[in-house]
Amino acid sequence: MAQSGRYSIYIRPLSYLIDLVILILFSSQFDFDLEMSLLFDVYITVCWIILSTYLGFYEVYRFTKLIKIISLTLSQALLFALIVFSFFGIFYELIREPGRVLLYLSESFAVIFLFKISLHFFLKKYRKDLGGNFRRTVILGNSPKSLQLRSFFDDNPEYGYNCIKEFKIKSNTNIENIFKFILQNEIDEIYCSMAELNNEQINAMINFADNNLKVLKFLPDNKDVFTRKLNFEYYGYLPIISLRKIPTDSTVNKLLKRTLDIVLSLGVIIFILSWLTPLIAILIKLESKGAVFFKQKRNGLDYNEFYCYKFRSMKPNPEADLHQANKNDQRITRIGKFMRKTSIDELPQFFNVLKGDMSVVGPRPHMVSHTHNFAENVDKFMVRHFVKPGITGLAQVSGYRGEIETDQDIINRVKFDIFYLENWSLLLDIKIVFQTVLNAVKGDKKAY
């Protein structure tokens, strides 16, 4: 269910890396000794990342105008120049002539700007002439604004939008037929003219997009959809509204979250699992025959399947992939009961985190059989798959971990998961991690 044209997850980190390499390479002209050179490189790297995040230097999209890129570069250059001169003000013994510092800044930004512009035009050329890096779209509505959007797509192939079809919407339009068309033709993005859709149709479209991992955007009008958390963008001079903006889609936030994941997973693997695994393995083997580790298919980011690892806490049984553990479950071994109570059985999932299949914090992944059922019967369940699943999550520390006993359990779990992905922050992840450790120490009544 991955979308076509989503190359930005590779382009932006690569752009960060290349720009930092340029800055570090040109800094060699200052002739620092090794220690001071390392200090300067760390200083400009940290400051560059913070500054570019603040200014949105890498928030360049397929519809971003050239003038915007130039403006971002000038702003970045001006403020970064102040940061570099501040370094020589702080470390006065390293001071260099102003002309030499300005030469460093001029050379660095000339190359960075050349790379940025070259990449921008290369992608436009690639979309226009080779038809790559495109997104398949449909437009719902026949208003002047929807016709204007269609013209924008048709007249600007370099933006990489392939409009497959326009739908005329009336009050009696069977919107289910549109849903079928979107699924059958693997549409990536849906654009709705809000002037022509009634509230019922808008809500139906929102629910469909959420449950099928489709990007939904609106041509604005005074509908009640504005009560939701929305994001404005501009295609040319035409305003477009996105249903939601997920913080972890940002390259910097993605980098911060991944860094936390790697640090925590390596810490657990090296300092805990390295000695705990042999002990747990002996205890598991002494009580029952079977493997030490239990692996099970789960659905992760973009609904892709992966193997989730745990310490085996049950006797081998044919129902392991079908039925969740419940209270007083006879399949659970004695050591398994202890591991599940203390969440020790989840620790091998830090290998999943290190591999990149999971995050330390995120929506908990369910068994594939349960996921298919929830996707069909629980509204907005699929929204959880816009981010990586986690070992722990906001829902788990809020009282919704373990067995799904009632419909309200999974409904509330989904609500917490959606709140998490729309309001993510590094501090929220850290808070959830601490709360999880605290719950493990105190014991959770739903941990069985």
Question: SSE layout and pairings?
Answer:
Elements: H1 8-26, H2 34-55, H3 66-90, H4 98-130, E1 135-140, H5 144-155, E2 161-167, H6 175-184, E3 189-193, H7 199-212, E4 215-219, E5 231-235, E6 238-242, H8 251-287, E7 293-299, E8 305-311, H9 334-342, H10 349-355, E9 359-361, H11 368-377, E10 390-392, H12 394-397, H13 407-422, H14 426-442
Parallel strand pairs: 1-2, 1-3, 3-4, 9-10
Antiparallel strand pairs: 4-6, 5-6, 7-8
Question: What would you note in describing this structure?
Answer:
It is a single chain. The protein is of the alpha/beta class and 448 residues long. The chain is 52% helix and 12% strand. The chain has helices spanning 8-26, 34-55, 66-90, 98-130, 144-155, 175-184, 199-212, 251-287, 334-342, 349-355, 368-377, 394-397, 407-422, 426-442; strands spanning 135-140, 161-167, 189-193, 215-219, 231-235, 238-242, 293-299, 305-311, 359-361, 390-392. The protein has a six-stranded mixed beta sheet, with helices on both faces. Strand 3 (189-193), helix 7 (199-212) and strand 4 (215-219) form a beta-alpha-beta unit. It is flat. Residues 1-5 have low confidence and may be disordered.
